[in-house]
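Reminder to self: tokens first, then the designed residues, so the page reads top to bottom the way the pipeline ran.
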């Protein structure tokens, strides 16, 4: 009996308040409509251990290096015990954030060394590929701040100023430029339905081209 073909891995990225979580359910439903068995998850978190580390990250003061090591520790557990086994079974994984967030927040935002993050990323993923497709919800920091203020109280990272989120946005732009075949930019400054249309178009454009 031959092994199941590797499943597909999709990540959603963007600064806090960009609107990515609002589209998670529709993305999973679209994949299910294509006949996929979908695992929906998130980072930081996704496993009991990584959720414990998430709680520390969001609520305790620490420097950028400590943040990077914590999120990669959580990602290692998430990758090894949940994502990689699901992909090996041919399931489709959709994660609200993945490694690009570390480059954007701890790299560009906090100033932690980009190439050191690339080394950590390679170790944590056993040198293998990460997401097949990343939808980058790109919006200006002022719009994202207004959305966050209307929606919820801020956690430790969300309370950082607009200059921080401008650097994080630049970090996502750098990752997109470095990975043009994987990262699709969504104009998340549009109204909700316009963003939803772009998301579906991006999925449709990518889907038939995937080699299994
Ligand atoms: N395109 C949009 N236009 C206006 N408000 C939006 C849009 N997308 C999301 N929102 C609202 O902004 C807030 C943050 O959205 P959310 O999806 O939680 O963002 P994220 O997951 O990127 O932090 C929510 O109240 C949501 O309803
Ligand atoms: C995955 C990841 C997230 N983060 C930050 C981004 C967010 O501010 C925070 C929590 O992410 P998230 O769960 O997306 O926040 P929310 O649901 O409140 O929008 O963690 C990092 O700093 N580094 C990382 O590697």
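Designed residues (212 positions):
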């Amino acid at each position: 009996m031959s092994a199941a073909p590797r499943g597909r891995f999709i990540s959603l990225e963007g600064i806090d308040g960009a609107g990515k979580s609002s589209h998670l359910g529709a993305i999973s439903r679209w994949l299910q409509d294509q006949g996929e068995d979908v695992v929906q998850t998130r980072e930081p978190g996704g496993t009991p251990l990584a959720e414990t580390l998430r709680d520390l990250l969001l609520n305790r003061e620490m420097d950028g290096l400590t943040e990077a090591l914590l999120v990669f520790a959580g990602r290692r557990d998430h990758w090894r015990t949940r994502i990689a086994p699901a992909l090996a079974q041919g399931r489709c994984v959709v994660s609200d954030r993945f490694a690009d967030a570390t480059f954007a927040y701890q790299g560009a935002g906090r100033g932690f060394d980009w190439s050191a993050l690339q080394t950590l990323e390679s170790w944590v993923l056993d040198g293998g590929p990460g997401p097949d497709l990343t939808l980058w919800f790109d919006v200006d920091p002022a719009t994202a701040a207004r959305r966050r203020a209307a929606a919820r109280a801020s956690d430790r990272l969300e309370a950082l100023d607009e200059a921080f989120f401008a650097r994080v946005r630049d970090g996502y732009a750098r990752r997109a430029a470095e990975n043009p075949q994987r990262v699709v930019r969504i104009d998340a400054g549009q109204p909700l339905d316009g963003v939803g249309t772009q998301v579906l178009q991006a999925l449709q454009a990518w889907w038939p081209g995937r080699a299994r």
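The radius of gyration is 16 Å.
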